[in-house]
Amino acid sequence: MPDIRDILRLKPVEITIDGWNLTIARPTIMDLIEAIDINAKNPAEGRAWLLHRHLLDDLGLPVFATLDDAKQCPAHIAAPAIVAIEGLYNEGRD
């Protein structure tokens, strides 16, 4: 279980997918509001938005600059990244 201090400080989470070291930005309350809004208005873009918003490179910059870029992410990278990102939205609820 993650440290509650890491959750509250929004400490990024390090993951490795297919040999690539990636960082996931923990969601803020504004991220939650925007995610709910995007999924209500255009659910087809919800997962691409998660990748665009939360997946960071080793410099802390977004891996995908736009939603269109995120939509081009290979499925074998997108699927586990999305699972990890979605898990952070429920973090600390237990």
Number of strands: 3
Give the overall pLDDT as a whole number. 92
CATH architecture level-2 label = 2-Layer Sandwich
Supply Rg.
Answer: 13 Å
What CATH calls the topology is rbstp2171
CATH class category label: Alpha Beta
N→C terminal distance: 9 Å
Our estimate of the beta-strand percent is 5-15%
Low-confidence stretches: none
3D structure, described in words:
This protein is of the alpha+beta class. It has one domain (4-89): Phage tail assembly chaperone gp13-like (rbstp2171, 2-Layer Sandwich). Helix content is 50%, strand content 13%. It contains 5 helices and 3 strands, in the order αββααβαα. The chain has helices at 4-8, 29-41, 46-54, 67-71, 75-89, and strands at 13-17, 20-24, 55-56. Strands 1-2-3 form a 3-stranded antiparallel beta sheet. A hairpin with a 2-residue loop joins strand 1 (13-17) and strand 2 (20-24). Helix 2 (29-41) runs antiparallel to helix 3 and helix 3 (46-54) crosses helix 5 (75-89). The protein is globular, with a radius of gyration of 13 Å.
What's a concise summary of this model?
This protein has 94 residues and is of the alpha+beta class. It has 5 helices and 3 strands; from the N terminus they run αββααβαα.
Q: Which descriptors would you attach to this protein?
A:
single chain; 94 residues; alpha+beta; rbstp2171; 3 strands; 13% strand; globular
